[in-house]
């Protein structure tokens, strides 16, 4: 199976990881192995890259892509969610690593394979699971969650102004028959969003599909859980590179780096610090790195990408 993939902010990530030839690195979102390929090229035989992905297709495709790279003894692929990074490294008897890369969001392959149910432009089963072994799908969400729960995720994760109306139409539609396909979902959204609001801007289903995908895969919860785990796994001087594609993701990463940079949380009225803030991270990028115009010409899916880099002290 072809796992097409154009790695986003590739040069910036490689530079940001500050790769040592004998270092140990983790690509927590292996995907099409585009980032991993470039990391491996810079490692000698005593270096190591651990690639993690919850999508079995990514694991299988990574070996195919890396067939032209010397991976002998330098590469391990693990089928798992990167939220378990600490346990994964423990099982590999690795105490700490020199760099961790997290490229968040949905992969190009997952978008391109219609049967995965991520796309709103073609008919397919309403799935959206990044890990096909998990039981909970988008179909389960839209057919079982309450109107209030559906409204909340569409509003928060999709930043959709018509969230309440879309949730109302979903709950009305499922009373007549189960919502099973992407096109059923698209038709419901189109009927909920007023015609005037559909004339301009992105596809009317885009924000809702994004919100449902984030909820199904627990993407924000996983991110909040993995960041402190990643920090704990880094060696002194180790780099953490995180690529986000959503404002809520970027906010979580930004706040984490800020909170771990020793910033005092005491009220301004306090005469001295009593919160005990400890500086554990140094922000390498004070502002997020975004794709260049040249990159966007060849990879439009990079348009909302933001890279933040930090270093463990």
Could you explain the architecture of this structure?
- By secondary structure, this protein is of the alpha/beta class.
- It folds into two domains: 194 residues, Vaccinia Virus protein VP39 (Rossmann fold), CATH 3.40.50.150; 85 residues, Orthogonal Bundle (DNA polymerase, domain 1).
- Helix content is 41%, strand content 14%.
- It is built from 14 helices and seven strands.
- A seven-stranded mixed sheet has the order 3-2-1-4-5-7-6, with helices on both faces.
- Helix 3 links the parallel strand 2 and strand 3.
- Helix 7 packs across helix 8.
- The longest helix has 15 residues.
- The N and C termini lie far apart (42 Å).
- The model has no long low-confidence stretch (mean pLDDT 91).
What descriptors fit this protein?
313 residues, alpha/beta, Rossmann fold, DNA polymerase, domain 1, 2 domains, seven-stranded mixed β-sheet, 41% helix, 14% strand
Number of helices: 14
Gross morphology? globular
Largest β sheet strand count, sense and barrel closure: 7 strands, mixed
What's the overall average pLDDT, rounded?
Answer: 91
Strand content: 5-15%
CATH class of the largest domain: Alpha Beta
Order of strands in the sheet with most strands: 3-2-1-4-5-7-6
Would you identify the CATH architecture of the largest domain? Answer: 3-Layer(aba) Sandwich
Oligomer state of the chains in this structure:
single chain
**Estimated radius of gyration:** 21 Å
Low-confidence stretches: none
Count of β-strands: 7
Fraction in helix: 40-55%
């Amino acid at each position: 199976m072809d796992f097409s993939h154009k790695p986003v902010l590739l040069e910036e990530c490689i530079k940001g990881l500050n790769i040592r030839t004998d270092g140990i690195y983790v690509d927590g979102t292996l995907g099409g192995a585009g980032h991993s390929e470039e990391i491996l090229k810079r490692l000698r035989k005593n270096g190591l890259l651990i690639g993690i992905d919850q999508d079995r297709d990514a694991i299988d495709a990574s070996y195919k892509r890396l067939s032209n790279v010397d991976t002998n003894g330098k590469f391990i692929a693990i089928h798992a969610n990167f939220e378990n990074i600490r346990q994964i490294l423990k099982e590999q008897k690795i105490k700490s690593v020199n760099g961790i890369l997290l490229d968040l969001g949905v992969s190009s392959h997952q978008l391109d394979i219609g049967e995965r149910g991520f796309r709103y432009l073609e008919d397919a089963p309403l799935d959206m699971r990044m890990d096909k072994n998990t039981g909970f799908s988008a179909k389960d969400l839209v057919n079982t969650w309450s109107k209030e729960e559906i409204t909340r995720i569409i509003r928060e994760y999709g930043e959709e102004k018509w969230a309440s109306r879309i949730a109302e139409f979903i709950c009305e539609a499922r009373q007549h028959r189960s919502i099973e396909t992407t096109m059923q979902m698209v038709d419901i959204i189109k009927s909920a969003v007023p015609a005037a609001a559909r004339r301009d801007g992105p596809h009317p289903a885009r924000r809702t599909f994004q919100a449902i995908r984030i909820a199904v895969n627990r993407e924000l919860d996983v991110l909040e859980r993995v960041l402190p785990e990643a920090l704990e796994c880094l060696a002194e001087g180790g780099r953490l590179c995180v690529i986000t594609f959503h404002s809520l993701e970027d906010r979580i990463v930004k706040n984490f780096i800020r909170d771990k940079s020793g910033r005092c949380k005491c009220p301004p009225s306090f005469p001295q610090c009593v919160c005990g803030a400890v500086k554990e991270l140094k922000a390498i990028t004070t502002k997020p790195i975004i794709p260049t115009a040249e990159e966007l010409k060849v990879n439009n899916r990079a348009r909302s990408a933001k890279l933040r880099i930090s270093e463990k002290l």
